[in-house]
């Protein structure tokens, strides 16, 4: 157990580990509350192939997806297929472990079974308090990094955060093999997944059924049970159940003196899909780059670290902002309007636009779709105006 470190990262998830691998030329310690890295899993693991490439995690891939079936409340699905792999399903447990092992191989210390409790400022450093197997422990560090997920205690205690909104998610792995392994189904509607969407994802020998629900709509489990029943799968063995929350809408500030937050702790997720791996890992790069320079200069002040804030927002901020804007319209659509939208999209030219979509930049197809199906404008003339203004910036 080190008593001093240059960098202490709270959270041994993918973002914390990825950050650690990049700062490990300095004394870097990762603190994870669970005894095991990668457990419990709170993720569907659907990512663009570029995430697998940037993390060299090819051997964690469970399945490849090339098509989407969108099922509106009225039930008339539309299907969009592509000749290329649009997404991959990764095994999150293996993925998290690989990233952690890589950080360790680079020289970072990984401390599991220790919970971050709080911090105190100590001159130009921070004293970080942990609760471990032997009781209270503390580490004196130059930089404290909150990669501690959506509940981020680091963010809360440092006065950064929280996210603007939390979507509650739940999913079950069912012991059933889907006939078509190439299509993910996305279901929308107030009765299916109010304020978000549900998914049915083939993963080889099992099928992942899950959904998200925005706040104030009751327990996600009741929607999951209803969906499983509706699909006639209630008798199927449930191999695993997972639940968690997706933070949506980043806070105004993601750093202060000696401290920064990254990944879900900073709500660096895509507001339309809830995916946070790509955006979190990209932000971890900016965070680590800034941290390395700041440590080299011996200046970890809020002013110096704000370079990270500027860089991650310049990189993914536009997608996040556009996603938030579109989400605002989406959550106010009635079931009938969702059916209308799907009916309007059920034509070859619109499906071609949809098939060119990229799950890391879902908002990018909004403008081409509006050009192809101008009648969509009636669902929110204000949104169209804002999107066009943002596009021109
Ligand atoms: C139901 C669901 C489905 C999802 N599906 C997808 C998807 O398909 N694709 C996608 O890209 N994203 C998805 N996400 C989002 C994705 O899981 C997150 O964006 C991603 O895990 C963020 O990584 P992270 O390292 O920032 O945080 P996390 O993975 O949450 O890791 C944080 C770590 O910090 C630890 N920690 C927290 N507090 C403390 C403490 N006080 N002391 C010590 N350790 C602590 C936690 O135990 C955890 O290990 C989904 C999320 C949910 C809830």
The counted number of beta strands is 18
Domain count: the total is: 3
Question: What is the C-alpha radius of gyration, as a whole number of Å?
Answer: 21 Å
Alpha-beta content class: alpha/beta
Looking at this structure, what is the CATH superfamily of the largest domain?
FAD/NAD(P)-binding domain
Q: Which fold name is given in CATH as the topology of the largest domain?
A: FAD/NAD(P)-binding domain
Name of the top-level CATH class of the largest domain = Alpha Beta
DSSP helical segment count: 11
The average pLDDT is 95
Task: Supply the CATH architecture of the largest domain.
Answer: 3-Layer(bba) Sandwich
Strand/helix succession = EHEEHEEEEHEEEEHEEEEHEEEHHHHHH
**How is the biggest beta sheet arranged?**
8 strands, mixed
Low-confidence stretches: none
The CA-CA distance between the termini, in Å, is: 50 Å
What is the helical fraction, as a range of percent?
25-40%
Strand content: 25-35%
Ligands bound, unique:
flavin-adenine dinucleotide
